[in-house]
Amino acid sequence: MSTLDFDITPNPNPVPAAEREGILADPGWGRHFTDHMVTIRYNEDAGWHDARVEPYGPIALDPASQVLHYAQELFEGLKAYRQPDGSIVTFRPYMNAARMNRSAQRMAMPEIPEDLFVRALEALVEADRDWVPTEEGYSLYLRPFMFATTRLLGVNQPARDYLFMVIASPSGLYYSGGIKPVSVWLSQNYTRAAAGGTGEAKTGGNYASSFAGQAEAVAHGCDQVVWLDAVEHRWVEEVGSMNLMFVYGSGSAARLLTPALTGTLLPGITRDSMLKLAPDLGVPAEEGKISIEEWQAGVESGEITEVFGCGTAAIISPVGEVKGADRQWRIGDGEPGEVSMRLREELIGIQYGTRPDPYGWVHRIL
Ligand SMILES: *Cc1c(COP(=O)(O)O)cnc(C)c1O
User: Fold this and answer.
1) Other beta carbons within 10 Å of 235
2) What cofactor does this protein call for (predicted)?
3) How does DSSP classify residue 181?
């Protein structure tokens, strides 16, 4: 149990209510931030200390802070959802806490007590409760992150000081104007992660190194990049910053396959939830391996009927078209698939409190 109390400094100049309502009516994604933020400091001697809820704003960093040079950083992402009765919940926050600590181990950073992590989310949502949208499908995106603040350019050791923060951003529908399948590019030039690397850690460096691959996808007229394994460049791993799901068959014969967590994939909480939900909806689910050749042949034979990416932000993102240097194919008829949408509806229903939560995934905050 963490015994840290949060020192709360209300923002003396919050965004005026009318302006906030305007933002919440059309928040977009990741563009607007709430009135407060959480900061908790760590150093080797004092451990975690100095927990605060304070006005949102710039932070001062020494130019020699280790994160600016060696990218010792990690982050998490989850949402707060308004329920029909006005209360506010998050979804499986202890999964995010546990994943953050696995990322911390890989990045040689300190672990944060899971209760303190969840308390930090709760403290911020309490301070910014008016920022949790009531519009259907909208949410307050929570972004916990941690980075090295030790002033030291020595490269032989991890930092001794860290700052953990949580900021929050109201978010609208990921797809305004309906869910449209995306086109994806099979990147042969770039890889996201290799065995022994940081692929399963949620760290900013994985994103920094993926922008060139994403730009290559866009240059080929595609929305997102499909990451293949680093050795043979044929085994499918992820799409953009989402896990991938393949639907075989249809109707009562449908089943789900997702690439197994080999150490180079990010273990998504949406992925995990789909693997648990699907069988209860009559769709058996398994983790396995799929190559680009099997993907193409499966779609062409009709065996693979739907493919989608899944993650907290979009929930599901159907894949409608795949392009590579020497191959190209289409999946479905330009509309999201039936199994994809059924899984999406079920998960959203649990998150927004319109369906029962037999799994105990919903965590009440207010
Ligand atoms: C965060 C992330 C995901 C999705 O994880 P969720 O917990 O489902 O949001 C998938 N892939 C990558 C690379 C990610 O960073």
Assistant:
1) 18
2) pyridoxal 5'-phosphate
3) P
